[in-house]
Structures are given as C-alpha cells and as structure tokens.
Design goal:
Two copies of one chain form a homodimer.
Chain A lengths: L2 E4 L5 H9 L10 H27 L3 H4 L5 H10 L2 H19 L6 E5 L5 E8 L2 E5 L8 H14 L3 E5 L9 H10 L3 E3 L3 H10 L9 E3 L4 H10 L4 E2 L7 E6 L5 H12 L6 E6 L2 H15 L5 H11 L1 E4 L7 H7 L3 E5 L3 H7 L5 E4 L5 H6 L25 E8 L2 H17 L3 H8 L5
Helix pairs in contact in A: 2-8, 2-9, 4-7, 5-6, 5-7, 6-7, 8-9, 10-11, 10-12, 16-17
Chain lengths: 431, 431
C-alpha cells in the first residue's frame, strides 16, 4: 500500500517531512574498488581495460577490438525493427529542433558608456564522453537525449562507451549512436570506461567532460574523476508527481504512476489531489492495471514502498509541497493547469494537461528526458545545450577606459592588501 | 627561476606535457575530520556550531550571537575607508549591469508544426549560501562577485557565512554584503558553516546551493554535501597566461605576472611570446619589481616554482598550447589580439589588448572574477547568473498532438521493454 497523507491532519507537517527524507537508493560503498580500477587504467591503459573487460563482461577485446567498427554499427542498424527505427529518427529530429533553440550566440559584446567593451563568447567542449549502461538498462532514447545536445552544441568529438556483457550490444543503441552523430564507440563499461575517458589510454584519447547514467561503480568513478574532467549530475532513481483535480481520469493517472514505477523498485510515483474520490479511484485503477503489466513485479514494489497519495483542500495548496519535493517530472491534470504551472518553482519538467503523459516527453516531444532527481530540481536543470558549452568572458579597455576605471581598481587592490594588483594598473597610468 | 621552454626544441612536446601535469596544490586529506564535523552539525545543530566556533575561532557565539546584526553591519560600513567604499559601490553597479544581460527570459514557449507547445521556464534558486573566508583572504570584491549575480538572478534568500577569528570581521566585507543585498550574515566558518547551510540548524535555515571559495576543509565539506545541495566549482590556485608579441611592454607584463603571483605561493604566471627579447626583458622586469613589492615573498616563490616563459615562432602557434593550458585568465598584448581571441577555445576570461590588465576585471569591469582554474576552462565557465537559476522544461499536448506523436512513443516504449510507458500513451488513444 502506498503512503496516504492528508494535509489537513494534525501530524501532516511531521509526516511530510519524514516522507521528504526517505532514502530510496541504497548507497553502496564501492569507492575503494573504484579507486583501484582508476589507478590501474591510469598506469596500464589498454592492458587494464582488456583485463577488466575480460573479468566483468567475459569478452576479449584484444581479439575483437575495443572500438566498435562502422561496419558493425551499420549491421546493427539493419537488424533493427523498422517501426522502432522510424520512431527513433522522429525522436532525433525533434530533439535536435528543440535543442537548437537553446544554442547561445557565439559571441555577445557590448560597449558601455565609458567605452569599455564587455561580453562573452560561447564555445563547445572539445571532446565529450557518453556513458551508456549495458544489459536491460541500455536505452536508445537516452543515447539520443545525451548525444544530440552535444552535437547541437558543436562538440567536435563525441565518444560513447558501452559495456557488451558476453559480447552483446543492443542494435537500437548502436543505431541511436549513429543517428545522433556519435564519433567513436568503444565496448567497455564500468569504472574502467570512465577512467579511460578521463585519463585516456593508447586507444581511447581523453575527453574533457563525461555524461550519462550508470550504476554505483560508474557514479563513484564519475565523482572521483570530477575536476580532471567535467561531469553531469549523478542520476538517482526516477520520480513523477501528478497533480490532479476531480476532472482527472483515474485510469490515465494510474497508467502514468505505473510508467514511472516500472523503471526501478526505487522509482517513486506520487499523486496529489483535492478529490478524495479521485484518490480512491486511482488507487483501484493502479491495482487493476498491475494485473496485466509485464513489469508488474518491479512496478508494484516501487508503488508499495515509495508511492504516495496526498490529499489537499485545494490544488493551489499543493504548490509549496511540490516545491519542497522538487520532482523530476510533474504532470498537471487539472482545469487550471497553466495557472499552477506558473506558480511552481522547483520541478525538472512540467507536463501540462491531461493529454501530456510523461512518456511523450521521455521519447518524442523533443525536450530532454535527462532531468534532476532526488530533489535536485531545487538547484539544477535538465540536460541542455549549455551543458556542452562554456563561456569565456571578454574585456577590452583602451587607455581612456583604463584611466576612468583604474583609480577604483587601485583603491580596491590596496584595500585588499594586494599591492601588485594595484601596481599593475598604476604602472600603465604612470601613477 | 621560472621554467623556460621553446616550442622549437626537440623535447618540447614531452616538457610541455609534464608542465601541464604539475600539481600546484598539496591535496590535504581532511575528509574524515570533515565527515565528523558535518555529522555533529546534523545531529546537534547550533550546539555543535557553538563548540566548533569556540574551538577554531576562539569566540562564544552563544554570548555574542551567531547572526551578525544589522547594527553591526551599519557600524562596519561607517568604519570603512571612504575611497575603498566608493570603489566598492562602483564595482557593485558595474557587476550588476554586466550580469543583468545574462538573465534569461522568465519563460520561452513555442508551438511546433503539430501544435505541440514546448519550452522552458527559468526560476531563481530559492535560497543560496555564500561562503566567505576569514582572515587575510577575506576579499570584499569576492563578496560582490558571488552575491550580486545571485540577487540579479532573483534569489529571494542569500545567506553569508564568514568566520570571525578572535571576533574579527573585515569591515569592507560586511559593507560589501550590505551593498550586494545579502539577507543574512552568520559568524561561522569552516566545514561547520557548510554543514549548517546544507542541513540547517535551529538558527540557520538550510539553503539549496552553496557557493564561494574556502580552504581544504571547506572544499571537502562542499564535496560531501553535494547532492543534498548544489555547489559551485571547487576553486584551485589562480593563474594567468599572457600572450605577447614584441610590442608588449615588459614592465606592464611583469606587473601583471606578479599581480597573479602575489595571490598565493601556488599561483601560476605564464608568458608565451614570439619575441626572445621580450622574454628576457620581462624576466628582468620581474626581478626588479619584486624588490619593492609588499608581498614579494609570496610572489617570488610562486614565480620561481610555477612561473614559465614559453617561446613560439609566431603567436598563432601558441593557440593550441593555450587551449591545452585552458588558463583561468588570458591576457593578450599583441597587435592581432582580436584575431587571437577569436581562435581560443579554452579560457575563463580573455583580457584583450595591453590596456586591459587582469586587475581591472578582478575589481571593477563588471565581468565576474570567479573563473575556472586548474584547466577546468576546458569544460566549465565563470560564475554567472545561470548558476543561480534553473530551467524547468514545459510540454503541452492536446488530443490531436498526442495522436500524432503517440504511436512513435509507443513503439519506443515497447522497444525498450517498458510496457507501462507504452500503455500510458495507448490508454489515452484507446489503442
């Protein structure tokens, strides 16, 4: 049974606070193991990759090659289901169109009243690594969501690493890499793949940033190489929060709660409503739909352990609760969906109206499905083009501008006890 | 003696590679200590802050209060040197003007050919903590550089923490906080201050993101609370790279190299030039200026241990070296400064032309002086307004749009083995 809370009950504040602090992911302490793997890759390069890949994936990369060849990728593409491939192409085009709008002007410069030229230029990161999990969690849609924005940003070199347990690689994953314009694909995974991307080996040249989801080993490796290279956020289990009034369709809402719950037993699905009838109907619909769901075992565990239904007097009362939960995905199925959208501060993505199930955004809308989890939407954003670019600020003074601004810089340099700062200005003004 | 390299010499590639990998900062392993401090603050709140502050700063916050009062801040402002205060106000106004241009539109939405509404809204982070070091490294300019962009972003609550060893607080630091619009100031520092910001205590409500520089304890604490809250980059020792041709003024260049070197014995100053005469003249000018520099001990150690002069045949040959070094600050004093600026991919900030010493940007130009160090300009940017905001993506379909996009979403859900994803779309289309 999912948790049921009523914001009118006397102990709600306490119960909501403890609900907020529930840890959904068992944190595995793999740091020591991962440190050893990274050190081995730094010191022995390809040889270490070969050993770890033989051990963990049971393949000999010295024999079949670390790099996945263009011929192999073409063959994989041919083996794909035609409908799925067409859907992937549609997704790719829409993701590209959406993300093109995020691209900043290459250079912005302005001249202020004193004649000082100020501004910034944006450049793409020169080389990016994309981690793709193997096995059942190898999602072609995630390849597109990570790779297309990097290419829209203009990254000249995009390198994908993906483990191939027992030599198996998902054809749609390789097809997605080709569609997205990935430049190099290597069959290596785990902490060893992250280490290779960060430090380089004989075969894999190092990159400047690593993105993409992975298991506890991959996450630990990303944390450890951070600083040497950039990393994206560390993704936690996925979440949806549905805000619905009495106009909500219980079957549709139940389907959306279960679409989240089927990801992972640690996933979380929450309904907040002002309608006790809807709450009851949704709960029944969930039970009923679970009976015919292929991944019912996963979804029912997630719904039982982390699901919740919260009753509020009016939906507007839910806004502060939503902001505290800061859900990765927020669906709003209510007559005043737009007004509620405008009031929300913290959410990774908002799906407005009953005809916008999250799954549309997961796959084909064009917006990114890599979104902040575990309440991190309070301070971070979903993956976007700027994650693959960086900003260099520009400043240009002539003698007059330096004369105008110099004395204030000298005063501050002296106030901070930094005499050489002051002198570097004074010496140009003959002061 | 600084390192001298010539890009024409046979061993240059190797020597440049080892120069790139020089570690300038002794990494102190303080993680265990810091973990203990954080746990104490989580479990005992204000009481733990009182104990650590008595121990490290030798003051009793139970007596004088953890929060720095408005009266205390006003008194500090009155005690400031008038010229320094006026310079600080000029800096504040220019920083605000520059950063206002970085503010994105609150909402961007567009409707595509299918009628799907897509877009995003930007919101400010609800509460931000700003760490300010105490003692000699308490720079009022850094308070402005961190606080003003947060207020431009629209953060409603900006909390500053600053240690006051033996009860001392720099008046200009408090004045800068007031000028920048900081909402709350607490006299607490170290890992305990970071823990209080992340987890909250009876007196200090928690924030969603923590920014600002600090010592090894503060940096370790920021790494450990990352995830619970957002953090900015971990700042390393500061660097400047000066690119100059024979038109460069050796005295000015020497002054700028020393302005960097005086920060810290781990700071780094590099000159790359195509003029062997300039190289020699700059080296002499550095020696000469060191004789009268107040912080000569620090600057000479930095120049001796980490300084470098690199000769190239033409300045254009320096571009790939600059991109590999990815300096925090790049000054270009050369006739073709603009053409070189256009070619550089990796730098935190570029100071164009001989009349733009870095110190102008450090204090009063308006651009931000919090910039990526230790080669991280390869993948990250200087502090800016977007660091204090986050993006929520928006998606809105009606029945027709869902009918148009639904089948592709269903195909991908099924291809990925996520049946509930497919069903959440199909159920709305009666499929």
């Amino acid at each position: 049974m999912p948790l049921r809370l009523d914001s009118q009950s006397a102990d709600f504040a306490d119960r909501f606070r403890s609900f907020l602090s529930v840890k959904r992911e068992a944190s595995q302490d793999v740091e020591q193991t991962v440190r050893g793997i990274i050190e081995a890759v730094i010191s022995r390069g390809d040889e270490a990759l070969k050993e770890f890949t033989a051990k963990f994936d049971r393949i000999d990369v010295a024999k079949i090659g670390l790099r996945v060849s263009a011929a192999e990728i073409d063959a994989a593409e041919k083996a794909c289901d035609k409908d799925a491939l067409a859907a992937l192409k549609l997704a790719r085009d829409r993701i590209e169109a959406y993300h093109l709008r995020q691209k900043p002007k290459a250079e912005e410069r302005f001249t202020d009243a004193l004649g000082v030229e100020l501004g910034a230029k944006w450049t793409a990161i020169e080389a990016v690594g994309l981690y793709v999990p193997g096995g059942t969690a190898a999602y072609p849609s995630s390849v597109l969501m990570n790779a297309v924005p990097a290419k829209v940003a203009g990254c000249p070199r995009l390198v994908m690493v993906v483990p191939s347990p027992d030599g198996k690689l998902a054809p749609l994953v390789l097809a997605a890499a080709k569609l997205a314009g990935v430049d190099e694909v290597y069959r290596v995974g785990g902490a060893q793949a992250v280490a290779a991307l960060a430090y380089g080996t004989e075969t894999i040249a190092p990159v400047a940033k690593i993105v993409g989801p992975g298991n506890a080993y991959v996450a630990a490796a990303k944390r450890l190489v951070f600083g040497k290279v950039g990393i994206d956020m560390i993704a936690g289990p996925s979440e949806v929060l549905i805000l619905a009034d009495k106009t909500g369709n219980p079957d549709w809402i139940a389907a959306d709660l279960l679409a989240q719950a089927e990801h992972d037993t640690s996933a979380q699905s929450i309904l907040i409503t002002d309608s006790p009838e809807l709450a009851t109907d949704v709960e029944k619909a969930v039970e009923s739909q679970l009976k015919t769901l292929p991944r019912a075992d996963v979804a029912s565990a997630s719904w039982r352990d982390f699901g919740a239904i919260i009753l509020v007097p009016k939906l507007a009362d839910a806004v502060p609760l939503v902001d505290r939960l800061a859900p990765e995905h927020l669906e709003i199925a209510a007559v005043d969906a737009e007004a509620l959208t405008a009031k929300i501060r913290n959410a990774g993505a908002i799906f407005i109206g009953a005809h916008t199930p999250e799954a549309i955004g997961d796959y084909v809308a064009g917006s990114n499905h890599v979104l902040p989890t575990a309440r991190s939407a309070r301070f971070s954003s979903g993956l976007n083009v700027l994650d693959f670019m960086k900003r260099t600020s520009l400043l240009k003074c002539g003698p007059e501008q330096l004369r105008a601004l110099g004395p204030a810089a000298i005063a501050l340099g002296e106030a901070e006890g930094l005499g050489a700062h002051a002198r570097s200005v004074a010496i140009r003004l003959n002061l």
